[in-house]
Structure formats: structure tokens, C-alpha cells
Amino acid sequence: MFSRDVNVHDIDARHYVNLRRLLEPEYQAYRAGGGKALPLVVILERGKPIKAVRADRGRVPLADVRWYGPGAMERARQENGGAFLLAVELATARTALREIEERVRLEEDGVAQALHVARVLQAHAGNGIYLSPRVLGGVPVPSYEAVQRTFDLLYPDERSVVVYVFERGEIHASLIAAKRRGDITEITTHLALGG
């Protein structure tokens, strides 16, 4: 889906930041110091927290972390204030990382690699890896081939997708992606069009 030698050029930095803000609704709250809304990761050893980290902020003192066990993930997420709460048993993390290392091949497409990772994580969900809210719980991870066929139907080869977002009559964000031979081969912004 993404060429190994994708040509990324003429990226408008302001458009990149604006596009990121549009795709990450919590971005503004995070940047404004809304650290309590940031995802929280808790590392467990035999069910007890040994380390906690908040995305983009770093380590959180364990005394500040509310933890009631894997059966009360939603309560812990709400009391800790995170958009997501991920709790991982250290032993399970080691096992999952080993399984990921065995399955993921560097020569594979990034989407294929992500699907391998998703399958490993799904296999351990509820048994050493706990998430609240449970994103796509029970939904099977599709094969790479199914994802590629769907992508090809929605976005045929030798086509480009051009996205412009306007705010108050001005270009707020732009993105141009070209697809050839089943892969996105070029990513750019309006700067490539020369005005």
C-alpha cells in the first residue's frame, strides 16, 4: 500500500501541522496542557503496577495512578482521566514482542507489518494486555490481501487523491497522494503545484 521508496516532497509544514490537528481531535487539548486527557500506559507485574507513562508527558508517579485490576479498566480509565488506558503485564509484553519479532518482516509493506502486530495484540487481549475503551474488540484482523483488494477498489492505480481543507477562505491544509502498481508512491502538498 505504501511503496518502500515513497517520494515525499514539497511538504508545507503549516499544512502538515493543521492536518495533524484535524486527524487528532485531542491534539489541541494536549498542546494546551490537557495532560490528563492523554493516553495512559500502565506496566504490571503479577497484577500490580510497576510503572506508568502518559503519552507525550513521560513517567507518572505510581502514587498518582488509580488501579483496580483488569476487571475494572473503565473505572481506572475514568479516574485517571485518559482518553485510553492500556495495561500490560511485563511477562505478556515480553512474549508479545517476541511473537511480533518472529512474524514481522522488514521487506513487508508497513500495513502488512501493522496487521501482524494487531494479530499478536488481539491474541493477548484480555489475557495480559488490557485496553479501555476496548477498540474493535471481537473484530477479526483482516488479511493483508483483503485490505489490499479493498484499497485497490477504492483507490485504483494511476490516480491521485487531492485533499484541500479551507478555513475562512484560506487553504488550511492540503495533501496529494499518487498511487501506482498497488502502492502510494508519492505524497506532497499544494507546494508541488507551484502556486
Question: Could you explain how this protein is built, in words?
Answer:
- The protein has six helices and nine strands.
- By secondary structure, the protein is of the alpha+beta class.
- It has two domains: 1-25 and 155-195, no CATH class; 38-82 and 85-134, no CATH class.
- Strand 3 (48-54) and strand 4 (58-59) form a beta hairpin.
- Helix 4 (90-103) runs antiparallel to helix 5.
- The two termini are 29 Å apart.
Output the strand order for the largest sheet.
4-3-2-5-6
Shape descriptor reads: globular
How many β-strands, per DSSP?
A: 9
Radius of gyration: 20 Å
In short:
With 195 residues, the protein is α+β, with helices and mostly antiparallel strands. 33% of the residues lie in helices and 29% in strands. The longest helix has 15 residues, at 110-124.
